């Protein structure tokens, strides 16, 4: 990603945006800036124009520069939109669908187009306000990301959480979480790649089901990365709130382990690479009740039966395919991963702690058949996806 749009709001930390822009430019990124009118009371547009080498946009109704619909063209241009500082006000606007100035309108128009990141900064009392917490929770569920504020002395002389994170740390977070590592482009061109992702749901009655905490982020990141590298990607996903990755060949939505099993083996013979990233339920209820179970007694006994093992079957049927599995464990991580690697006839396994299921970052070890291990510590799942795919170089 090379195009970064900086949104500067009217928090006192707006002056720090100058250093963020300068650092990004020194690293070779293209930078454009939108300021709210309040932000211009803290730092001038001319300062940020000088640093970004681009015109700073403030007024939606300004004329005389270009004929394009500017909020659309800026949304299309940006790979990343960083709002720094992100105030209580801008978070509330976006969470509630308000687009009444250039910045909020561009953010609204960029959904599904750019990664949008809020670097939070505000008074401690505002930071702890439950309304803000609800708005952040809502936006996170919609795939917006946040850089938490630091603790320290604030402009109002209060001490607490709310200070904009150090500018260099913000850049580091952008680079580690959202900017793809250097890799040979399109080395997967012409290859058919099957990825399973997300959790499965095993129904008990019309209301209840058994499932797990998997968000699908790792599998979706792999699908997007593989498509960017030229692969023809088939993504089979259990329930997830994530946006379907761009440029994939086919997206198939399933719920249960049996449904995922059926869809995998419709196409498995024709794929070159299989990556089993889904957190598939090992068991399902033996009886699925047609009506809601009533709480008529103090105990409820449920018999579970084993689901088909999708990855084991993929390993048994493997011919030309390269097969990568995942081991999410809570103990004896490497030992259990090695057992799974051998038992399921995998070429590689990615071992990580089960606690990473709900997080944007992951700490993982990639292991091959010869027990050669490569460790990655607390990196974004977007970046880890490229490292996983890079093991295929020289094998395809």
Spell out the key features of this protein.
396 residues; alpha/beta; Rossmann fold; 2 domains; 8-stranded mixed β-sheet; 6-stranded parallel β-sheet; globular
Give a short account of the largest sheet. Answer: 8 strands, mixed
Uncertain runs: none
Tell me, what is the CATH class of the largest domain? Alpha Beta
Could you state the oligomeric state of the chains shown? single chain
What radius of gyration results from the CA coordinates?
Answer: 24 Å
Head-to-tail CA distance between termini: 26 Å
CATH superfamily of the largest domain: CoaB-like
Number of strand segments: 20
Overall geometry: globular
Strand order of the largest sheet: 13-12-9-14-17-18-19-20
General description of the model:
- The chain folds into two domains: 176 residues, Rossmann fold (3-Layer(aba) Sandwich), CATH 3.40.50.1950; 199 residues, 3-Layer(aba) Sandwich (Rossmann fold), CATH 3.40.50.
- The two termini are 26 Å apart.
- α4 packs across α7.
- β18 and β19 form a beta hairpin.
- By secondary structure, the protein is an alpha/beta fold.
- The strands form five sheets. The protein has an eight-stranded mixed sheet, with helices on both faces. The chain has a six-stranded parallel sheet with strand order 3-2-1-4-5-6, sandwiched between helices. The chain has a two-stranded antiparallel sheet with strand order 7-8.
- Helices cover 31% and strands 25% of the residues.
- The chain is built from 13 helices and 20 strands.
- It is globular and about 65 Å long.
């Amino acid at each position: 990603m090379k195009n970064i749009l900086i949104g500067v709001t009217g928090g006192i930390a707006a002056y720090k945006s100058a250093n963020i822009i300068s650092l990004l430019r020194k690293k070779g990124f293209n930078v454009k800036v939108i300021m709210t009118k309040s932000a211009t009371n803290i730092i001038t547009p001319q300062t940020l124009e000088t640093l970004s080498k681009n015109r700073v946009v403030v007024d939606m109704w300004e004329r005389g520069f270009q004929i394009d619909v500017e909020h659309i063209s800026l949304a299309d241009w940006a790979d990343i939109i960083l709002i720094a500082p992100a105030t209580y006000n801008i978070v509330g606007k976006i969470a509630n669908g308000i687009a009444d100035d250039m910045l909020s309108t561009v953010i609204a128009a960029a959904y599904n187009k750019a990664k949008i990141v809020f670097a939070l900064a505000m008074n401690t009392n505002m930071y702890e306000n439950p309304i803000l917490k609800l708005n952040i929770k809502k936006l996170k569920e919609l795939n917006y990301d946040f850089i938490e504020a630091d603790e320290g002395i604030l402009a109002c002389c209060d001490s607490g959480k709310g200070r904009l994170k150090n500018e260099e740390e913000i850049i580091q977070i952008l680079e580690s979480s959202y900017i793809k590592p250097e890799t040979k482009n399109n080395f997967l061109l012409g290859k058919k790649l099957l990825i399973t992702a997300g959790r499965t749901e095993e129904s008990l009655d019309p209301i209840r089901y058994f499932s797990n905490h998997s968000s699908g982020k790792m599998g979706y990141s792999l699908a997007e990365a593989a498509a960017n590298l030229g692969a023809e990607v088939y993504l089979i996903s259990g329930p997830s709130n994530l946006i379907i990755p761009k440029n994939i060949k086919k997206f198939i939505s399933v719920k249960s382990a049996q449904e995922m099993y059926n869809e995998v083996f419709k196409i498995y013979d024709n794929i070159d690479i299989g990556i089993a990233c889904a957190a598939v339920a090992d068991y399902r209820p033996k009886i699925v009740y047609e009506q809601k179970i009533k709480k008529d007694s103090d105990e409820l006994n449920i018999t579970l039966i084993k689901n088909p093992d999708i990855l084991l079957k993929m390993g048994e049927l493997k011919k030309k395919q390269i097969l990568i599995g995942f081991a999410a464990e809570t103990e004896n991580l490497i030992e259990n991963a090695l057992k799974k690697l051998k038992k399921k006839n995998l070429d590689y396994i990615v071992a990580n702690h089960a606690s990473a299921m709900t997080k944007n970052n992951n700490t993982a070890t990639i292991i091959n058949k010869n027990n050669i291990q490569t460790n990655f510590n607390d990196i974004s799942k977007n970046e880890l996806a490229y490292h996983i795919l890079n093991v295929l170089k020289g094998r395809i």
